[in-house]
Amino acid sequence: MVKKTLLIIAAGMGSRYGGLKQIDPVGPNGEIIIDYSMYDAVRAGFNKIVFVIRHSFEDAFCEKIGRKLDGIVETVYAYQELDSCLDGFPLPQGREKPWGTGHAILVAREAIQEPFAVINADDYYGTNAYRIMARQLEDMASGQADEYAMVGYVLRNTLSDYGTVARGICECDGDGCLKKVTERTGIGRHQSGAMYKDETGSMQLLSGEEIVSMNLWGFGPDVFAHLQQQFREYLRHHAKENKAEFFIPTVVDRLVQTCQKKVKVLPSRDCWFGVTYQEDKAIAQANIRELIRQGVYPEKLWGSVQREKR
To answer: Backbone phi, then psi, for 88, in 5-degree steps?
Structure first.
């Protein structure tokens, strides 16, 4: 059996929600977004899940989330702490903000030796995304594909009605491979589609049809060497910038621009949603209710999963 691994970046869950026990439910039986992500992944054939968390909420996470997978898939934990993977670089004084999503993947380097997918814990990606990524990982494992992959979403399908978001804006070539990805912050809705504030503070318009990264990536295990090299360089140049982060799209863009890797873009018309803002909760709940009505999910999510001992 081909091992299909999903890495879930969850180290920020505690801080953003004031503790795991206060994560807002979006499903009718108290399910949170990560429940639907794990359920979709299992149905798509993923058989190993690696959670990136922090030691400070490990017990609560295992009790509330991780144990739902007992007897269903293999589960592994990796820990994103400020001093993780610094490889001798001194932790800068005053640094409190996590190092970012690129660092979150890097801390799992000892737990993964096979092609794997990456998602954020608090983002809903849609059922199709896991199916197409699972097929891509199978091709990578069998040697039929050597490029990385990214599920690409239409920008307007990923925006919040209640605030701005950060997105990796993508450009693709004629073969459907990534040419460039540019991390943009402060993207919000606009009558033209979307807009963001550039580095000079000027507002720039977007059509809303741009393809964006939602951090659903497919990588080979060789990505860890690339991440470590780029993280060392990041630390040398930006470690004293206490709010700077080491983003996945930035890492991927450099690999593409230097022709070290190709990244296949797997398009999806699914609508993303999450709970970036407290006001997003009602929309997420309404979306889940509609998906249950359509038969995409059962009313009681985990009760429908057949539990088999590994």
So the answer is: 95, -15
